[in-house]
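Technical annex, item 7. During the second reporting period the consortium partners agreed on a shared format for inverse folding records so that results from different sites could be compared directly. Each record opens with the tokenized structure and is followed by the designed sequence. A conforming record, contributed by the partner at site C, is shown below for reference.
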């Protein structure tokens, strides 16, 4: 039996019930941050392993643990689901929930390619059910303030952007045993971490006029070192770099006609940024510190949307996800990364 909270009753929800599908590292961080929201609770968890589900439920006080994803909804009322499996499971599980009328927060990337994301968006609109891609960076306080600062003209006209994200992965001899290096599992730097610099460019610039990508691939065909340059009206450029070959600063620099804005590391969930205008020395620092990992902000946004009767986020809309995945899919076409079934 499936207990569903539909949007017409969302405003009446006193305590918001969450479920999580897929119980890896990100799911654990999300569950930890969910505990920071007074009117939210985790009530159900689903995994392909009942033992793992029971252990996760015990850790976070969820009353229902399921050894299959479908059985997750055989317990208490669920008001929204966080899909936190690896990329390859996002489409199937999101559609499972949407067809049941259950609102979904789907971990990024929402799908492996534009076609999958389009199918998911169409299902959400057809079933009139809430769906949002978990681009949590949109809701991090410092990132919200950066967007407001740029739009207010604090650095003049935005002229360019550089952002990077890199960490050292496994040794070459272990490539075939790690998800990140296996195209069959949606592996590669682009979808796992390269999505963040490209998201930032879209967040601030909008849709690119031109997309140029180049990458180094493993023998299995996954990208491990990827450079993407996006061109915008007026010739403005966004340089987006991601790598699994070593740790980078993972920061971002915005170049304006009247100054610069430096997003501190790690930029996608930064606690602050610096403004430098003209010959100002030193730069002005702006801090927006928070406790936890930062996932509580996207969870709260979903709850607020549903209580307001919205079917998608006004901050990160379904059209925003479609645009992002159109860009990512074009980059993959250019660099030659192909996933099963494509």
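Designed sequence (site C submission):
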């Amino acid at each position: 039996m499936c207990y569903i909270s539909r949007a017409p009753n969302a405003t009446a929800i006193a305590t918001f019930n969450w479920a999580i599908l897929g119980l890896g590292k990100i799911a654990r961080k999300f569950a930890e941050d969910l505990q920071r929201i007074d009117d939210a609770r985790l009530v159900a968890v689903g995994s392909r392993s009942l033992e793992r589900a029971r252990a996760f439920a015990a850790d976070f006080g969820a009353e229902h643990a399921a050894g299959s994803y479908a059985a997750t909804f055989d317990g208490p009322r669920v008001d929204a689901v966080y899909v936190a499996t690896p990329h390859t499971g996002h489409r199937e599980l999101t559609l499972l929930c949407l067809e049941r009328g259950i609102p979904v927060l789907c971990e990024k990337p929402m799908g492996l390619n534009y076609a999958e994301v389009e199918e998911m968006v169409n299902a959400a609109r057809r079933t009139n059910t809430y769906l949002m891609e978990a681009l949590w960076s949109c809701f991090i306080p410092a990132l919200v303030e950066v967007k407001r600062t740029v739009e207010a003209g604090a650095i003049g006209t935005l002229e360019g952007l550089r952002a990077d994200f890199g960490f050292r992965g496994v040794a070459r001899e272990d490539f075939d045993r790690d998800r990140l290096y296996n195209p069959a599992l949606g592996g590669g730097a682009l979808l796992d971490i390269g999505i963040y610099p490209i998201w930032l460019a879209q967040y601030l610039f909008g849709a690119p006029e031109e997309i140029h990508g180049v990458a180094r691939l493993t023998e299995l065909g996954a990208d491990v070192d990827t450079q993407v340059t996006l061109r915008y009206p007026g010739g403005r450029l966004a340089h987006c770099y991601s790598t699994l070959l070593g740790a980078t600063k993972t920061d971002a620099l915005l170049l304006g006609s009247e100054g610069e804005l430096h997003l501190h590391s790690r930029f996608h969930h930064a606690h602050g940024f610096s403004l430098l205008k003209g010959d100002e020395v030193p730069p002005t620092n702006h801090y927006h510190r928070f406790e936890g990992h930062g996932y509580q902000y996207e969870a709260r946004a979903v709850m607020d949307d549903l209580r307001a009767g919205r079917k998608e986020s006004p901050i990160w809309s379904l059209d925003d996800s479609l645009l992002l995945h159109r860009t990512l899919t074009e980059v993959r076409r250019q660099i030659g990364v192909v996933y099963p079934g494509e």
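The first strand starts at residue 16 and ends at 21. The two ends are 36 Å apart (CA to CA). All partners now use this format for quarterly exchanges.
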